[in-house]
Amino acid sequence: xxxxxxxxxxxxxxxxxxxxxxxxxxxxxxxxxxxxxxxxxxxxxxxxxxxxxxxxxxxxxxxxxxxxxxxxxxxxxxxxxxxxxxxxxxxxxxxxxxxxxxxxxxxxxxxxxxxxxxxxxxxxxxxxxxxxxxxxxxxxxxxxxxxxxxxxxxxxxxxxxxxxxxxxxxxxxxxxxxxxxxxxxxxxxxxxxxxxxxxxxxxxxxxxxxxxxxxxxxxxxxxxxxxxxxxxxxxxxxxxxxxxxxxxxxxxxxxxxxxxxxxxxxxxxxxxxxxxxxxxxxxxxxxxxxxxxxxxxxxxxxxxxxxxxxxxxxxxxxxxxxxxxxxxxxxxxxxxxxxxxxxxxxxxxxxxxxxxxxxxxxxxxxxxxxxxxxxxxxxxxxxxxxxxxxxxxxxxxxxxxxxxxxxxxxxxxxxxxxxxxxxxxxxxxxxxxxxxxxxxxxxxxxxxxxxxxxxxxxxxxxxxxxxxxxxxxxxxxxxxxxxxxxxxxxxxxxxxxxxxxxxxxxxxxxxxxxxxxxxxxxxxxxxxxxxxxxxxxxxxxxxxxxxxxxxxxxxxxxxxxxxxxxxxxxxxxxxxxxxxxxxxxxxxxxxxxxxxxxxxxxxxxxxxxxxxxxxxxxxxxxxxxxxxxxxxxxxxxxxxxxxxxxxxxxxxxxxxxxxxxxxxxxxxxxxxxxxxxxxxxxxxxxxxxxxxxxxxxxxxxxxxxxxxxxxxxxxxxxxxxxxxxxxxxxxxxxxxxx
Length: 738
Fold this sequence. Notes:
- 66% of the residues lie in helices and 1% in strands.
- It has helices at 2-9, 46-58, 84-95, 117-136, 138-141, 145-150, 157-168, 172-184, 190-193, 196-213, 221-225, 228-265, 270-279, 295-348, 351-370, 390-403, 415-423, 427-444, 446-459, 469-477, 483-518, 524-545, 552-562, 567-575, 581-598, 614-639, 645-655, 663-666, 678-703, 707-731; strands at residues 29-31, 73-76, 601-602, 605-606.
- Strand 3 and strand 4 (605-606) form a beta hairpin.
């Protein structure tokens, strides 16, 4: 038969039918070498194969399908070399009545999750609720940019704080936590737990200062604190750097996380797989690699783009008001569902007692392989830990929290956390919102993720992509009755972050770049419309960037590297008059260039190569970057002129920072009352950190069966919280509003 002639003419290595993702059969190549991609020599057969396909298409479809054994693997598709009619014929060939089950090898995955019409109704209902909230606030948000970006400064602490928590609970967060727990143990979470020290400092030292500034974005602070052309340049540069580059990088890795979820939970239907290969690959596009244009990825991106469109729509029409109220709904939904998933994950691992016993075996295997000690369950790593190096822990706790810029944990506050503080009714609500955010973010939220991660270690010990373990627990062990709610919960996790990033990024583009440098005389309606267009632009750009990402944890570490060493400047600009615009410019530039230098290869090797395990290398990289960046900005600060006295006096009168680092300026503004609460703020900061860590570890000890120690930790946390409340009450809550 002609089809067998086709296989023979392709010189044995290639065959018309392809095994694609364990299911598909399309035009392509089958290689006996069990490789993932076809060698270049196989492309020599493409011209001959094309001719035979055309000849086959012109004849009757009475064919004898060549048997393909399950052991053979697809290595490359030649569809990109074919015209549309030829690729369409391949689709017909695969779908015809002669289709034989032996052509379709069984899936190499666990069972696919069954999603019922009821599940889809639940998801649709959730999307509809978000859209209705956006429509409700449409008129209010369209009044002016103040309403669109900071909700008219009318937000209560509980709503602003919950929105902060929801924004940092993205679709990527549980996956990254799973990856860190599986590779470094529970102690691996110190990569983000350490930022509590910065977060609590924002609560007691910076939240009120941000609110007093009465600005729309944190970038706007630049021209409030600095003067002249350097300040103007810095404001425009930061608007583009954070609003476009950093913002889209964040959107990209959130998209990557959602792609992993969608591709695992909702497999591409057969009609889409064939349509994608016949239409997309036949176009001859070669910009993206085979993995980037695979049907699985394309299907996931189609769904993601649909969710982005919906998210953009309510963000587009309702501004921050819509973001805040949808965040509240989303936070309740996704927290409820990760608790449910943690329960079923532990049950699938045999229950808590059995899971801990199996993890002890994992510990023994790890110790035997590395020669270290310690446990995957350790909250703090041992000196010779087999899981997380003590050097990395010391870097997190001693350097990273004050030195690194990271979204949602900026030293001194900033980004969308600052945006929520700007939206608060007064300083009291600003402080309360930030305090609630740090309690919920660090103390209440992590354990459902960690338990699911531990269950994935037991259930899938040989999983190559550890981050996917969280999704596999969901797909394989969550009862079908919860499927719709879980889908809605992850859509909520995704949408809350995307909505925040889009609104925050567009505020930079419009308020700090377009309005400041391009069009300074437009109407409020004009700027609101520009904000909506900026929202759509960032949504599309972020989706495109996600095509080139492969690891969420890697993106986290890249962002930490780019911001390493800049944090000290962001802290000191409030409390030391000598910091100037060039301090910030030099810090950002030095951190970015050092990060690039550390990733440059010459002759296949890194120019600067640190030895050790991946966590060790990361710690050394961050420490090196912080050292270089700190040296550069300190030298630049002393080699350049300070800001003009009139600008410093203006800032001091408006924001009223502590007098200790502003004595030369304070003498020029004697009418400003000197605040004497610095030591009390320091005490509350330390108590706040103690409170959250004790609650975090107390819950962990109780979960793992150490009741006495767990309740003891909770008691210490409660005492610390009471002392904070007593101090603020003694000083007078009303003073926080003036």
